[in-house]
TrEMBL record:
Residues 160-294 form the 6-phosphogluconate dehydrogenase C-terminal domain. InterPro entries: 6-PGluconate_DH-like_C_sf, 6DGDH_YqeC, 6PGD_dom2, 6PGDH_C, 6PGDH_NADP-bd, NAD(P)-bd_dom_sf, Pgluconate_DH. One of its GO terms (biological process) is D-gluconate metabolic process. The keyword Oxidoreductase applies. PANTHER family: 6-PHOSPHOGLUCONATE DEHYDROGENASE. Pfam families: 6PGD, NAD_binding_2. Keywords: Gluconate utilization, Oxidoreductase. This is 6-phosphogluconate dehydrogenase. Belongs to the 6-phosphogluconate dehydrogenase family. SMART domains: 6PGD.
Length: 295
């Protein structure tokens, strides 16, 4: 099957590699001409036989909106556009409506797998019409891991990105739990070999997971994580998950706490803790440290 891919970065480029290895024909376009198979979007579309399928893998928000708007007049009735980036689920219906004006289908696909995708396959969470999903199954089958898991038609337009949002929210919580366990073990006077403890958990325990395997790998490379700054950005998916939990009145304390922990990681000198120290000094006369003393 033919597929056009727009955006050949770490994800899009690796997806092209996996698809070609599975015998699928892929035409890729990227602003980096060294990566691109097409000169521009017009050239990309011209290299695809109708009915076409074009997978968009560019940053979420305005870059995705601009790409879909640019594609709309170039494609024809019966074509399908797939947004496989980390778009907010609320953007999907607007994209679907825009394309539907020209008889173009739309699928939103949450993609998980990261840099390990070419080797292990990608977990795919799809939203959109059943007929469009069925038509693209050769592509989905080539991208997903072997076996029965790693793919879901989650529901209507928006469901794929919604499922990926919740997936990432859970990921935030899992990573935070492992990280807190790491710090507690490292602080203990009882434990002599923290990396070995994590390694022991990789088999036979209820906390074993791929994330645990990756943490073990990181500790093999740097047992004290000395070369890594304690700063963790967030992609937006965790925020959206917490916002949805508020909208639907669903308690998500672990996910919310993990998101706030990332915010705290970016503060060299926390204004919140400054206020706490000042209050303790005011009501109880507790000593405060000057900035020089804390360095």
């Amino acid at each position: 099957m033919q597929l056009g891919i727009i955006g050949l970065g770490k994800m899009g480029g690796n997806m092209r590699t996996r698809l070609r290895a599975a015998g699928q024909e892929v035409v890729g376009y990227d602003t980096d001409v060294s990566l691109s198979d097409a000169k521009d979007l017009t050239d990309l579309v011209s290299q695809l036989a109708a009915p076409r399928a074009v997978w968009v893998m560019v940053p979420s928000g305005e870059p995705t909106r601009q790409t879909i708007q640019a594609l709309a007049p170039l494609l024809s009735e019966g074509d399908i556009v797939i947004d496989g980036g980390n778009s907010r689920f609320t953007d999907d219906q607007a994209h679907a409506d825009l394309l539907a004006e020209s008889g173009i289908g739309y699928l939103d696909v949450g993609v998980s797998g990261g840099v390990w995708g070419p080797e292990n396959g990608y977990a795919l969470m799809v939203g959109g019409d059943k007929e469009h999903v069925e038509r693209l199954m050769p592509i989905f089958d080539a991208l997903k891991p072997p076996g029965e898991f790693g793919f879901v038609h989650a529901g209507r337009v928006g469901a794929g990105h919604y499922a990926k949002m919740v997936h990432n929210g859970i990921e935030y919580g899992l990573m935070q739990a492992y990280a807190e366990g790491y710090e507690l073990l490292a602080a203990s006077e009882y434990v002599d070999d923290v990396p070995a403890v994590f390694k022991s958990w990789r088999e036979g325990t209820v906390v074993r997971s791929w994330l645990l395997d990756l943490l073990d790998r990181a500790l093999d490379e740097d047992p004290e994580l000395a070369g890594i700054a304690g700063y963790a950005p967030d992609s937006g998916e965790g925020r959206w998950t917490v916002e949805e939990s508020i909208r639907l009145a669903v308690p998500t304390p672990a996910i919310a706490a993990s998101l706030y922990a990332r915010f705290a990681s970016r503060q060299d000198d926390s204004p919140t803790m400054k206020a706490v120290a000042a209050l303790r000094n005011q009501f109880g006369g507790h000593a405060v440290k000057s900035k020089d003393e804390s360095q």
